[in-house]
Amino acid sequence: MARFREQIRASLRELEEAGLLRRPLGIEGPQGPEIQIDGRAVLCFCSNNYLGLADHPDLLAAADQREGYGAGASRLITGTMSAHQEAERALADFVSAPAAALFSNGYAANLGTIQALVREGDAVFSDALNHASLIDGCRLSRASIHVYRHRDMEDLESLLLTHRARADRALIVTDSLFSMDGVAAPLRDLAGLARSHDAGLLVDEAHALGVFGPDGSGLCAAAKVVPDVLIGTLGKAFGGAGAFLAATEEIVSLVQNRARSYVYSTAPPPSMARAALAALSLVRRASDARATLLRHAARLRTGLRDLGYEVPLGESQILPVMIGDNDRTMRLSARLLEQGVFVQGIRPPTVPRGTARLRLTPMATHRPDQIDQAIAAFARLAPSD
Predict the structure, then answer these.
(1) Which residues contact 274 (CB under 8 A, 6 or more apart)?
(2) The pLDDT of residue 383
(3) Beta 123-127 vs 319-324: how paired, if at all?
(4) Catalytic residue among 141, 179, 261, 333
(5) Could you give the number of structural domains in the chain?
(6) How far apart are CA 202 and CA 364, in angstroms?
(7) pLDDT tens across 343-364, in order?
(8) Which residues are CB-contacts of 24 (< 8 A; sequence separation ≥ 6)?
(9) Domain residue limits at 372
């Protein structure tokens, strides 16, 4: 036991020496444009609460416990309740899919869905910068994994030409909006390659749902692309928790029977499903909030670039401020927090080695003067600090 504990301490020292040890900050009170850290009010620019719905009174009212606090069991035992079924029907309709299935979170949805749809003898083709949950779902499936260069359709087509014929079933897997870069996948090109190579297409809309597309229905809807499988997250723009799979009834049924994170996990609380229904109603009516969010992002992007920070061009609500060095990234994050602006540093393995960054995300509920306050905090520092 003593040796094991020393090995754990050694692993922690390795992380610290590499500038990769993480220590989460404790947040007091609700998530919003302004939060409390150690009793001090600071502006929050690192949350995925894009539309500012996390503390919306409609969600708080909907997430009561009139149907009990817990679901009691997994979905296939006694855990499927009327709240789950109502939410699934509404979410499927929202993304124009025949059916949907709720999961406890986006990680569980991606992990279980991919593992359920492909297996040994099949092939998955995955973008190099896909979210960890997509990567782990591919690994758990035991299918052969072929990673194509980020958003590189020539590389993907080359891999399909080389490996597709050897596999029984094939699945292309991608985020629609990449969470650490804020750029969109070439969805129409991906759909074309899926058709021409007889492959399925799975798209994770986690960071696009609620922000882009008709009534916030995502980038697939905006591009008029119908993926075989769409994964949506309820813990970001929807302000709550949970996730869902949307697809044909046959695909949903197969996932419900094979996805280990669905079959062997207690169902989400019914209050979560009720809150999702309330959030969906708000998201559909949030066109002004979406416009405000993207206007804030454009103002931040221009302001930081004018100050000399390396912020790639883009049109999404996610702004990576590229730093490179792990320690310098975290020093900048700490100095910004001292000035009352919370911007989290992102380091490997979340992003590739040498690309550490500050990930800046406004909310629709930030005021214009708070956007200016964030830019002013960056101005008091230097990109090379």
Answers:
(1) 62, 63, 64, 67, 83, 87
(2) 66
(3) unpaired
(4) 179
(5) 2
(6) 29
(7) 999 999 999 999 999 999 999 9
(8) none
(9) 19-51+286-379
* φ, ψ of residue 126 in degrees (nearest 5): -125, 135
Backbone φ and ψ of 324, nearest 5°? 105, -60
**pLDDT for the residue 385:** 63
Please compute the mean of the pLDDT values over residues 112-119 and round it to a whole number: 97
Residue 207: active-site member: yes
Q: What's the half-sphere exposure (Cβ side, CA atoms, 13 Å) at 331?
A: 11
Tokens at 38, concatenated: 């150690």
pLDDT tens-digit profile of 123-174? 999 999 999 999 999 999 999 999 999 999 999 999 999 999 999 999 999 9
* Domain shared by 183 and 76, yes or no: yes
Looking up residue 131, the CATH number of its domain turns out to be 3.40.640.10
* Distance from C-alpha of 23 to C-alpha of 184, rounded to nearest angstrom: 30
Judge if 319 and 198 occupy the same domain.
Answer: no
Residues 210 and 141 in one domain: yes
pTM over 0.85: yes
> In whole angstroms, what is the distance from residue 106 CA to residue 83 CA?
19
Q: What pLDDT band is residue 63 in, cutting at 50, 70 and 90?
A: confident
Do residues 195 and 103 both lie within one domain?
Answer: yes
Is residue 179 part of the annotated active site? The answer reads yes
Q: Which of 56, 84, 197, 236 is catalytic?
A: 236
Q: What is the pLDDT of residues 237-246, one digit of tens each?
A: 999 999 999 9
Please identify which of the residues 56, 131, 207, 366 carries the catalytic annotation: 207
Residues 20-49, mean pLDDT to the nearest whole number: 89
